[in-house]
Amino acid sequence: MTLSQPASNIATESPGGLIVHHTDYGCLKATGEDALDLINRLSTNKVEHLEPGHWAPTVLTTDRGRIVDLLCVVHAGDCVYLLTSPGQQQPVIEWLDKYTIMEDLEVEDVSRSTAVVALAGVGADAVLGQAEDEPEYLPGRIYPATTVTVGGSEAIAVSRPLGGLPCRLLILPGDAAHAVASALSEAGAATADADHWETLRVGSGNPAFGSEMGEPYNPLEAGLIGAIDFTKGCYIGQEVIARLDSYDRVQKYLAVLRFSGGSDATVGASLAHEGRTAGTVTSLYRTPGGELRGLGYVRTAAAVPGQTLELQAPASGTATVEDTPKLFGPGQDFS
Question: pTM score, two decimals?
Answer without folding.
Answer: 0.91
